[in-house]
Design goal:
The complex is a heterodimer of chains A (119) and B (112). Chain A has 119 residues and is mainly β. In chain A, 0% of the residues lie in helices and 54% in strands. Chain A has strands at residues 4-7, 10-13, 18-25, 31-37, 44-50, 53-57, 64-70, 73-79, 87-94, 109-110, 114-118. Chain B is an all-beta fold and 112 residues long. Chain B is 0% helix and 61% strand. In chain B, strands 2, 4, 5, 9, 10 and 11 form a six-stranded mixed sheet that branches. Chain B has a five-stranded antiparallel sheet with strand order 1-3-8-7-6, with no helix packed on it. Chain B starts with a strand and ends with a strand.
């Protein structure tokens, strides 16, 4: 089973709202990711969690706040967003291998995404 | 800097008309090349991982191959349900983790 589950599938929020996107995986993966994807563009990395700790933040504005409560769950808290933040938000997970001695990377499995519209 | 270039940007085929999608890359130490299929409004669906030049993988009408500089996704006798955007990604090391760098994708439309 290579399933990453995201909720909600669609979200409409005002610029003063606070909302959260949720992601869950039960594959035992210890790396989890948030990506943002605009129409006709490739996924753009936002955050990476390794062993439930934030390891990469790609200079994402503070109005996006990630949280990893445990090894299966990943949240993205949204506050004071702008209309240009409207996009498909993708959660992903993978096994975690670290160190230059590793010859191969790890397949990243994506969820179906959460469509966010900021009005 | 790692780069991934996919061509063509868009491809229209008739049902049954075989073709190939290209992914050329430059990376310092390949840790894997990945192909994904993405349907409109959905997350990328994993297709293949290739690790070394000469490696090939097949799945139904799709076959992925890898050289030291590029990968091809061959589509044999495509059907309309193969219509999607195909993304290629190479994996690089960032902050101790393996992070994929995506190409811009090839949008494939197969007409019945």
């Amino acid at each position: 089973d290579t399933e990453v589950t995201q909720t909600p599938k669609h979200l409409v929020m005002g610029m003063t709202n606070k909302k959260s996107l949720k992601c869950e995986q039960h594959m035992g993966h210890r790396a989890m990711y948030w990506y943002k994807q605009k129409a006709k563009k490739p996924p753009e990395l936002m955050f990476v969690y390794s062993y439930e700790k934030l390891s990469i933040n790609e200079s994402v504005p503070s109005r996006f706040s990630p949280e990893c409560p445990n090894s299966s769950l990943l949240n993205l808290h949204l506050h004071a967003l702008q209309p240009e933040d409207s996009a498909l938000y993708l959660c992903a997970s993978s096994q975690l291998r670290r160190g230059s001695g590793e010859k191969t990377g790890n397949t990243i499995y994506f969820g179906e995404g959460s469509w966010l519209t900021v009005v | 800097e790692d780069q991934v270039t996919q061509s063509p940007e868009a491809l229209r085929l008739q049902e049954g008309e075989s073709s190939s999608l290209n992914c050329s890359y430059t990376v310092s130490g390949l840790r894997g090349l990945f192909w994904y299929r993405q349907d409109p409004g959905k997350g990328p669906e994993f297709l293949f991982t290739l690790y070394s030049a000469g490696e090939e993988k097949e799945k139904e009408r799709l076959k992925a191959t890898l050289t030291k500089k590029e990968s091809f996704l061959h589509i044999t006798a495509p059907k309309p349900e193969d219509s999607a955007t195909y993304l290629c990604a190479v994996q690089a090391v960032m902050g101790g983790s393996y992070i994929p760098t995506f190409g811009r994708g090839t949008s494939l439309i197969v007409h019945p």
